[in-house]
Structures are given as structure tokens and as C-alpha cells.
Write a structure and sequence with these properties.
The protein is mainly α and 108 residues long. The chain is built from six helices and two strands; from the N terminus they run ααβααβαα. Helix content is 58%, strand content 5%.
């Protein structure tokens, strides 16, 4: 099972990949042309379920979503020309987004 808090965490991660979204990090505003869509959040949760099972757990945790952020979002976040010129990678942008989102509660 996936708690509502973990789903909200995944949705917030995806939302913050979009320039102009509340709470988006500076790297997103400066270097992203297009952020991820709703399907990215769905894939984070689905992948989180698989990862939790592979680790012998029945519940998806925040760490599952964090671990899958780069692989899921890598091809869904489109950098602008300035990012390419400054050698800023999508993985750097995603890492900054992940750091910017705090879980609703700890311990999961």
C-alpha cells in the first residue's frame, strides 16, 4: 500500500519540476523549459511499489520515491538552452528538486 502522504510527496516532486510552480527551486526557474506531467507522479508511485517489494517491504516509503526520482524524471524534464550552455544536467536539477521537498511526516 501507498499512504496518501507518500502520494502527495510524489506529486509535489513532479509539480516542482515545472518553472513557475510554487516552491520550485532556482535551478528549475533558470534551466527548465518544460517540467514533468502527472504521469511522472503515477510512475514514481508505481515504481515505488516495485522497489518496496524488491526490498521486502509491503509499504512504499519516501526513500523509494527519492531513489526513483532521477530515473523516472530524467527524460521528462526538458532543459532550456541556458542549461545546456552552463552544463547543468537534468540529474542535477532533479536532485535539487528532491532536496526542496520535505516529507509530510518522518519514519516512512
Amino acid at each position: 500500500p501507498v499512504s496518501d502522504e507518500v502520494v502527495e510527496f510524489a506529486v509535489e516532486l513532479v509539480r516542482r519540476t515545472r518553472p513557475g510552480a510554487p516552491g520550485s527551486p532556482e535551478l528549475v526557474s533558470r534551466y527548465v523549459s518544460y517540467g514533468a506531467s502527472v504521469r511522472a507522479a503515477q510512475n514514481l508511485v508505481l515504481g515505488g511499489k516495485a522497489r518496496a517489494l524488491l526490498h521486502g517491504r509491503a509499504h512504499v516509503g519516501y526513500d523509494d520515491i527519492r531513489a526513483l526520482a532521477a530515473p523516472v524524471l530524467r527524460h521528462r524534464v526538458l532543459r532550456n538552452f541556458q542549461a545546456q550552455a552552463d552544463n547543468v544536467t537534468v540529474d542535477q536539477i532533479v536532485a535539487d528538486v528532491v532536496k526542496s521537498v520535505r516529507p509530510a511526516r518522518s519514519g516512512i
